[in-house]
Write a structure and sequence with these properties.
Elements lengths: L14 E4 L2 E7 L8 E7 L4 E4 L5 E15 L5 E4 L4 E4 L5 E17 L28
Antiparallel strand pairs: 1-2, 2-3, 3-8, 4-8, 5-6, 5-7, 5-8
């Protein structure tokens, strides 16, 4: 059984920040469950263009107001507490935090190692080797 809280990630390699966003990785590849789970904040006014070519991502909004734009179709979808969006086709998209900080629970498969930041293309590289839960290969 894994039991963690968000505060336990602060100040560790699992607490990753970028321009206008903050991600606390609660479950990562080394935990061996096949997905990673993150508590993510996108600061109000932030716009991020992203595309996860190597991962599928599901996002559950529990705070703030925002939108996600499908860059292939141009469709815009409103985000607020209780909404979910899934990038099931490696969709190129924009996420905007419009009113208040956008608060998301993000699930990635395959799992992230936990220390990644976005590449120039707005995604994450696949991890090569996954250490086991003890931190060794």
């Amino acid at each position: 059984m894994l039991v963690r809280d968000v505060n336990s990630t602060v100040g560790t390699p699992r607490h990753v920040r970028g321009e206008g966003w903050d991600s606390k990785r609660l479950v990562v590849a080394a935990d061996g469950v096949g997905f990673s789970l993150h508590d993510t904040t996108v600061e109000e006014g932030t716009e991020m263009e992203l595309q996860y070519r190597h991962h599928v991502e599901a996002n559950y909004c529990f705070g703030g107001q925002g939108e996600v734009v499908d860059l292939e179709s141009g469709e815009k979808f409103q985000l607020g507490p209780g909404s979910v969006y899934v990038l099931d086709k490696h969709d190129r998209h924009i996420v905007r935090a419009v009113k208040g900080d956008l608060r998301l629970v993000c699930v990635f498969t395959p799992a992230l190692a936990g220390e990644e930041t976005h590449t120039a293309e707005g995604g994450y590289e696949p991890i090569r080797a996954v250490p086991d839960a003890t931190g060794t290969d």
